[in-house]
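Obj.: predict assembly geometry.
Materials: sequence records (below).
Method: joint structure prediction, all chains together.
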Amino acid sequence: MDAPVLYAELHLANTQGLRCTSPPSPRQDACWGSGWHRVALKLGCVGLILLLMGLSVLVGFLVQKPPIEKCSVAVQENKTEPTVRSTILECPRDWHLHWNKCLFISQTSRPWAEGLADCSLRGATLLLIGDGKELKLLQDFSKGKGQQFFIGLKYVQEDKVWKWMNGSILNTNLLRITGKNEENSCALISHTEVFSDSCSSDNHWICQKTLKRV
Amino acid sequence: MSAVKIEEASVDKLKIHLTATACLQEEDKGKVLQGKLLRSISPESRVKLHCCYGVVIVVLTVAVVALSVALSVRNKIPVMENCEPCSATCPSGWIGFGSKCFYFSEDVGNWTFSQSSCMALDSHLALFDSLEELIFLKRYKGPSDHWIGLHRASTKHPWIWADDTEYSNLVLIRGGGQCGFLSDNGISSGRDYTHRKWICNKSSSICKSKLGNVPRHV
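Observations (raw C-alpha cells):
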C-alpha cells in the first residue's frame, strides 16, 4: 500500500515542470516593445535638458543690468539753405540771391543796433525794401522760418517819421507799420505784417548788399 | 487480481487530479503576469506619457522664445542714467524736466494769443524756477525766440508771471517791451502785439507727490 503512493507524487512534480515552463516565453518578447520608442525617449530627454539650459541662460541675461545711456535732449539743427548761383552774378558764401541783392539772415537774435553793426562788419546794410513784391517775398520767408526780422527802418522822434537807413522817408503806400510810433521803435518784419518793436528787443535781422558782377 | 486493478485505477485518478490542479495554478500565474505586461504596454498609458513629454517640451520652448524676445526688446530700449523719472508722465508732444512738462509751439502769435493757446491746453505760458531750468529751455528752443510767462503793465511796472506771482529777478530782463521772451541771449522783452513762438508749461500730477525725491538732471 505505501510504495504506490510515493511513486505517484514524484510523477506529478515532473509533469508540472514540463508543461508550465514553455507558454510564457513568447509573451515576454512582446514586453520589450519596438526600438524607435527608446530612441524617441532619449531624444526627448536631451531636448528637455537643452531647453532647461537655455531657460537658465536667458533668465541670467534678464537679471543683469541693461546698458546705460546718458540723457540727451534732441536739439533740432538749423539747415542752411543752398546758395543760389549764376554764371554772371554771384553772392558770397552763406548769402542768398534775391533778384539783384544778396541777403544775409542772422543765426542769432540781438538788439537792432547790434544787427546794424553786424551788417556793417559784413560790408552791408540792414535790409531796405523797394517794392511790394520784395515785401511779400520776405513775409513768406519769415513764415517759413517761424521768425521775425529787424530791417533797416527806424522811427525818428524829431521828425516824427519812419526813415530807411539810406535816409529816405518811408512811403506808407508801400508798407504800413503796425504798432506804436514812438521813440526807440524799429521795424520788424513778420509773416503777415511789419511791426513796430522796441529797438532794444532781441530779434534776428537781415542784411543786404548790392550784387557785384564777377 | 481485481483488488490490484482497483488500486491502480484509483492511483491513476489521483495522478490526473493533482496534475490538473497544478497546471491550473501555473496558468493563473501566467495570466497575472500577462495582465501586468499588458498594462505596462497598454496604449492608454503610452499615450499619456507621450502627452506629458510633449506638453513639457512645448512649455519650455515657449518660455525660451518669450525670454529671448523680452531680452531683445529690452536691449533696444536702454535705461537712461540720470533721466528724470517724471518725464514719462508728460502728455504726448510735451517735454519733461524735473516736475514740469513743457510744450514748444510751432505756430507764432502775439503774447495774448500765446497765453490763450496755453490755457486751452490746461496750462499757461512758461515759468522757470531755477537757472538749470532756464538753461534747459534755452537749449531746447532751437534758433527761434519763444514767448514765456513774464509780462508787465508798462516799462515802469514790475515784472510778473502769467500766474500773477511776482518775478524774483533771477535773471536780468533786457529789451524795452512789456512781454518777456526767451532768446539766444537769455530773457529779452518785446511789445505784446509782435509775433513769436511760445512755451507752455504745466506740472505733472504724479511728479508733484515725488517732488522731494526727484533728482535734478545734470
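Conclusions so far: Chain B touches chain A through 64 residues (CB under 8 Å).
To do: check interface contacts against the pulldown list.
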